Amino acid sequence: MAGGFPQGGDGGGRTADGGDGGGIRTFPFPVERSVCGVGMQIAPMGPDRAWRADTPLDRVHRIDFHIVMLLDGGPLRHMIDFTEYEATAGDVLWIRPGQVHRFSRDVEYRGTVLAMQPGFLPRATVEATGLYRYDLSPLTRPGPARLAALRAASDQLRREYEDTETLPLSLHTAVLRHALTAFLLRLAHLAAGSGDVARPAEDSAFTLFRDAVEQDFATNHSVTAYADALGYSRRTLARVVRAATGETPKAFIDKRVVLEAKRLLAHTDLPVGRVGAAVGFPDAANFSKFFQQHTGTAPAAFRAEHR
After folding, report:
1. Other residues' Cβ atoms within 10 Å of the Cβ of residue 121
2. Contact 260, 216 (CB under 8 A)
3. Least confident residue range of 2-16, 92-106, 128-142
4. Counting Cβ atoms within 10 Å, is residue 279 exposed (0-12), middle (13-18) or buried (19+)?
5. pLDDT tens digits along 21-63
6. Which residue among 15, 52, 66, 155 is least packed, with the fewest CB closer than 10 Å?
7. pLDDT band at residue 8 under the 50/70/90 scheme
8. What confidence category does residue 2 fall into, taking pLDDT thresholds of 50, 70 and 90?
9. Using CA atoms, how far apart are residues 232 and 38, in angstroms rounded to an integer?
10. By CB neighbour count within 10 A (0-12 exposed, 13-18 middle, 19+ buried), where does 31 fall?
11. Which of 185, 202, 191, 203 is nearest to 134 (CA)?
């Protein structure tokens, strides 16, 4: 389709269910196409660019990096984790690693696209810019003044990205990190509703918990196990998770498990029992009970509704 991203990768792509081809394809950050091999890219979107030759953009997929699209055209519809977002010129779409999404069919995406690899920015910057605030809407609509500031920050970042002559690589990368941080702080401020993006010092504890859940939710649903692994008491963990999300640690874990189950039910042909096994329920009956308890719908009915 028209208006994608610079083609990258080796024609492959991982699947989300263990690699047998039955899951959702996940595409890695195409580092080999970055200027000087740095962990970010910024470029215009347009009809001369494609994401992958072998995977249509309007089919669901994941990426293991961040994508920020600052749009110059529209309207368009972009699906991210079961929600269709309607966006137009001046809007910003932020797709975070692991989110399942698809592009509009036969719609040209015009504007600027930023891709960034996890690990390119230091931990303190990640927390300050809310890189993994999955609770925030992917769609932001800045007002005229803030949009102008975002565009200026984006233009500056692109100039620094493309300037490979005036600085050695180490300094070029350092300058890019500073320019990227400035852009993301502006964007995160908007995405958080003009409130403070960074949370109190306890946010570091929540970040560790969130990262642990993201890594282990398919095999570990125990609050006690996470608390022990992180060196916190259950009470401390409950306090920091509630401060960050308004939820209990158990509700946070279950919500992540349910989201993954929904993704696999809606976007793959894996049998219900294998979906359950992929999110930590070897027994299909227990998975069906858990899923219905949290969604009000049986797994098979949810799948039928989204096909």
Report:
1. 22
2. no
3. 2-16
4. buried
5. 457 888 899 888 889 899 999 999 866 544 455 556 778 999 9
6. 155
7. very low
8. very low
9. 36
10. middle
11. 191
* Cβ atoms of 264 and 252 closer than 8 Å: no
Tokens of 132: 């993994």
| Contact between 185 and 128 (Cβ < 8 Å) | yes
Token pair of 80, please? 């991210």
φ, ψ (nearest 5 deg) of residue 168: -65, 160
Tokens representing residue 286 in the block: 């227990």
* 37 φ/ψ sector (left φ>0, alpha ψ -120 to 50, else beta): left
Query: Does the structure show a pLDDT above 70 at 7?
Result: no
pLDDT in tens, 195-230: 444 444 456 889 899 999 999 999 999 999 999 999
Lookup: tokens for 251: 């509700």
Q: What letter represents residue 225's amino acid?
A: A
- The answer to whether residue 19 scores a pLDDT higher than 50 is no
263 CB contacts (<8 Å, ≥6 apart)?
16, 24, 81, 100
In one-letter notation, the amino acid at residue 143 is: G
Write a three-state SS string for the chain.
CCCCCCCCCCCCCEECCCCCCCCCEEECCCHHHCHHHCCEEEEEECCCCCCCCCCCCCCCEEECCEEEEEECCCCEEEEECCEEEEECCCCEEEECCCCCEECCCCCCCCEEEEEECCCCCCHHHHHHHCCCCCCCCCEECCCHHHHHHHHHHHHHHHHHHHCCCCCCHHHHHHHHHHHHHHHHHHHHHHHCCCCCCCCCCCHHHHHHHHHHHHHHCCCCCCHHHHHHHHCCCHHHHHHHHHHHHCCCHHHHHHHHHHHHHHHHHHHCCCCHHHHHHHCCCCCHHHHHHHHHHHHCCCHHHHHHHCC
